[in-house]
Amino acid sequence: MSPSPTGWGAWDYRIVFTAGGAPFIELIEGAPGSPWHAEDGARFDHIGFWSSDVREGSRRLEREGFPVDFSGCPHGRPFAYHQMDSIGARVELVDASRQESFLQAWNPGGAPMPAIDETAG
């Protein structure tokens, strides 16, 4: 698939995912100042996980010592990035409610993927 140009607020960016099912590799070209800008060149940026509740998952990661790097939640976007220095990258939580539209766009007919159950103790 070819990259899809999109935008969010003042940030324009292009995004594309590999086809054929999980695991997906995401390539993002982000505008300066955006959470996806790679001013020092291409890099491994993050590992993404589906979450049953991004806000609760984000609080859990903060309690475990992984600070929020950027959250879309205050802006009505259900995702959050947390810095995880042990892997040299960020962890992204994306609300599982977004999975159906993701699959329609990037893997039509693809099987649902598991989500972290944030209600499990």
What is the strand and helix layout of this fold?
Blueprint: E1 4-8, E2 11-17, E3 26-30, E4 46-51, H1 54-63, E5 68-71, E6 79-84, E7 89-95, H2 99-106
Parallel strand pairs: 4-7
Antiparallel strand pairs: 1-2, 2-3, 5-6, 6-7
Descriptive key words:
121 residues; 2,3-Dihydroxybiphenyl 1,2-Dioxygenase, domain 1; 3-stranded antiparallel sheet; 2 helices; 4-stranded mixed sheet; globular; alpha+beta
Question: What do you see in this structure?
Answer:
The protein is of the alpha+beta class and 121 residues long. The chain has 2 helices and 7 strands, in the order ββββαβββα. The protein has a 4-stranded mixed beta sheet, with helices on one face. It has a 3-stranded antiparallel beta sheet with strand order 1-2-3, with no helix packed on it. The protein has a single domain (4-106), classed as 2,3-Dihydroxybiphenyl 1,2-Dioxygenase, domain 1 (Roll). Strand 6 and strand 7 form a beta hairpin. The mean pLDDT is 87.
Q: How would you briefly describe this protein structure?
A:
With 121 residues, this protein is of the alpha+beta class.
Strand line-up in the sheet with most strands: 4-7-6-5
- Helices and strands, in order, run as EEEEHEEEH
Rg, nearest Å: 14 Å
Could you name the CATH topology?
Answer: 2,3-Dihydroxybiphenyl 1,2-Dioxygenase, domain 1
Give the averaged pLDDT, no decimals.
87
Q: What is the CA-CA span between the terminal residues?
A: 39 Å
Count of structural domains? 1
Shape: globular
